[in-house]
């Protein structure tokens, strides 16, 4: 009895961690799913929900079969945890971002730094292929963190593509979907459209939101299948690539970053747009070095608390 309750509590906390991550610009919920050991199960669950298997299950066994096929017990605990994390993040994390950003970034830096070492150990083999994949993924993720945002366009076909790419980045460890929208120049198009659609039901905003949602569903269904296939057939290479994405993303959550350019948000307020990582001595503000070190250590240790499930033996890659 205690073991199932403990497992549900741990899954709830993992969901809460994912929800918190989604509030932080530059941190992906997929990263937290990856480092807490539920990433592959989450991919398989998404694949089941967004595929034809649910209809087959309903015809064969009704709603109970659908619940089982959709991994209902898993979602029934994970989704409330994510909701709790999102709500907590909106009221607490966003305030910390305004008052003590370097401490919050330090906490997530410690989380991801620990996961790089931990997940790297789970790569079944380290050959030239895996090392090359890690280096290439790290370079790509780093480039994304320093790339200058493009100028977006509001054509429906481009909005559809943005939905596909942003949601794919959302489940890819190390890359934030909202940051991808920013790089594509679509953050100021999509976010205001969502707000307007939910408050005034403006037809133009609803159209943008609908097309974006369709693109997100297509991207989620496609990318989850691809990643699930990659894990089953090229596990070592896939793990190495995802580890590389996390290595490259560390630049985005470096605790000391100076703003070099601002933008105007949907509220007409000036907010950071481009930032540059610097050493504590060059930081524009109180570096709080001791606090940063403590939070990095805490973040590092939490990885071990969240990952309570013993690591299974890795299956060999399928040629």
UniProtKB/TrEMBL annotation:
<protein>
    <recommendedName>
        <fullName>DUF368 domain-containing protein</fullName>
    </recommendedName>
</protein>
<dbReference type="InterPro" id="IPR007163">
    <property type="entry name" value="VCA0040-like"/>
</dbReference>
<keyword id="KW-0812">Transmembrane</keyword>
<feature type="transmembrane region" description="Helical">
    <location>
        <begin position="204"/>
        <end position="224"/>
    </location>
</feature>
<feature type="transmembrane region" description="Helical">
    <location>
        <begin position="126"/>
        <end position="144"/>
    </location>
</feature>
<keyword id="KW-0472">Membrane</keyword>
<feature type="transmembrane region" description="Helical">
    <location>
        <begin position="156"/>
        <end position="184"/>
    </location>
</feature>
<feature type="transmembrane region" description="Helical">
    <location>
        <begin position="74"/>
        <end position="96"/>
    </location>
</feature>
<feature type="transmembrane region" description="Helical">
    <location>
        <begin position="288"/>
        <end position="306"/>
    </location>
</feature>
<feature type="transmembrane region" description="Helical">
    <location>
        <begin position="103"/>
        <end position="120"/>
    </location>
</feature>
<keyword id="KW-1133">Transmembrane helix</keyword>
<dbReference type="Pfam" id="PF04018">
    <property type="entry name" value="VCA0040-like"/>
</dbReference>
